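Working notes for the structural subgroup meeting. M.R. asked for a predicted model of this chain before we commit to crystallization trials. I am recording the input and output together here so anyone reviewing the notebook later can reproduce the run.

Input as submitted:
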Amino acid sequence: MNTFAFVQARTGSVRFPNKLLKKVNGKTIFEILLKRLSRSKEISKIIVVAPKSDKKSELKNIVKRSKQKIFYGSENDLLDRYYKAAKYYKANTIVRVTGDCPLVDPKIVDEVILKFKKNKVDFACNNEKSPYADGLDVEVSTFSALEDAWKKAKKLSDREDVMPYVSRSPKNRKYILKSKFNSSNLRLTLDYQEDFDVISKIFNNFKPNIYFSFSEIYKFYKKNPGVFKINKNFIRDEGSNLSYSQKLWSKAKQIIPGGNMLLSKRPEIFLPGKWPNYFSKSKGCYVWGLDKKKFIDMSIMSVGTNILGYGNSLVDKSVKNTIQNGNMSSLNCPEEVELAERLIELHPWADMVKFARTGGEANAIAIRIARAASGRDKIAICGYHGWHDWYLAANIRSKKNLNEHLISGLNPYGVPRVLKNTVLPFSYNNFKQLENLVKKNPDIGVVKMEVARNFRPQNKFLEKVVNLCKKNKIVLIFDECTSGFRETFGGLHKKYNVEPDIAIFGKALGNGYAITSIIGKKNVMESAQTSFISSTFWTERIGPTAALATLKAMEKLESWKSITKTGKIVKNGWKSLAKKYNLKININGLDPIPNFSFDHPDDQYYQTFLTQEMLKKGYLAISNIFICVSHKKEVLSKYFRNLDPIFKKIKECQNDRSNIKSLIGRLPYTGFERLN
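Returned structure, recorded in token form:
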């Protein structure tokens, strides 16, 4: 009987690039694995199965030096790679070992093979419901069972992980090797730097010997448990348990810097390794993942773009009609004129409008116009206003300048250093600070701020800002990309009876379609003609069409009233739960964008636990919500029923009846620094 060990290997690891080529005491991890595995008495031959992309990698040289064979196959279909390799070498018995398990024990390998032969089964392993340490995994299959899986397995997970179909097939007889003692708390596999640190310490302990057994490793662990705490927070068999969505995200990070286009949608800031990442469908306040699992969105609602809910029928119908009639032309679309008139009608102080497609673009356009109108370069800012050079310049002098303005740790790399001191931050409700900035910097020509975000204006703060700007001939810009159309039908500034020189709207304006607007007074807006502000796709038709339909639907539903009322209910619900379990929480934000935090040093752990547990219950839930009209009474009732036991558990953790840190995996990233 030909018993071949097929060792899957690749250099293109996503989580830990080139992990197999990492060296311990002068030898690569993969070379060590092959040497250790060659000590097996039951294996006839070792074959490395690698993707075709590794034909020119160092992997080939390592295999050659180890005097083994290598077979190249499918990049992602591991089942196909294994089957074709086994068929090519005419293997009767296939032993599967993974290249990221350098501490695999040949004695344990032989034991699994012998049990496989003795019991005359189709499949044997030691990694199912097993107390063996992670990284000692061995799977053995007959060729016929592998071939059957190759023919019938359709699921992506079955193709990517080789043996799941073989293991669960009812026609296959199966044997699971049990360990004499439980070592399942140990992680000896290699997926992260922390894993490599542990593995290095183990090899350094036994050097120059590389052939030590797992029994010897376990004795080392008993004497040095601290070594094995370095990687204890990682999930067992994480790679094989990753969903298609998780794997797609891993691939994305290889070919798209950061993984996506928007920091606020990176899964690491929600629940690393568990957040669904991608969607297949959205409707109302529901989102379906790539695996068709349905979630209720009680989180960012696409970062506040969908006040009317996902897939509003009126808006979508208007867009479909536009697409059928043509989105672009050498001529201009009439919808932008109609939209400009509608926005001016809603804001009688404004005379002129320009359009863009993103909030960052709109903010940059507004700054260009305002600087041109004032004839001065410096800007005083409060709040978050996008990613462009003019904004990030605030952090050239100190990386902490923008910390209180939504995102901390923003690096101004790539921003010209000559822009230093051109953007001067001030705090919300701190009028004296702004007043002093203007006194010390007479060349401030623009004040740019959010009307409100987490806090309401106090002591006539907004009125004072307006008067200060008028007195000093400073152009005042209200950035309403986030606040617009939520508590009022139009800009939030209408609620406080203040008028800027320019106001910016985005996010909700198109209910999921890309459209932003810059509205302003004629004497300021006409300065746009003295500069160069132009872009091809600002002239497309879908955005203005969607905005007109969105405004119509908003007015019909009185959406601003609905979402404000709902937001108050949510705030009261959080407050009631906190009171019920005697938890201290802080509740902030505009009513349609409520947020809370636990007033406790372990706040981040509690929030992570909340997201984790609510995800299990079918919710995309974090500590802040962008409310939409689809967040109906029944949705809220169910939400709070599911939230109740989570608040209860958090209280138990505070009372030391449970350790919150033991209940969660990796913490989400905060700020910008760790994401970059």
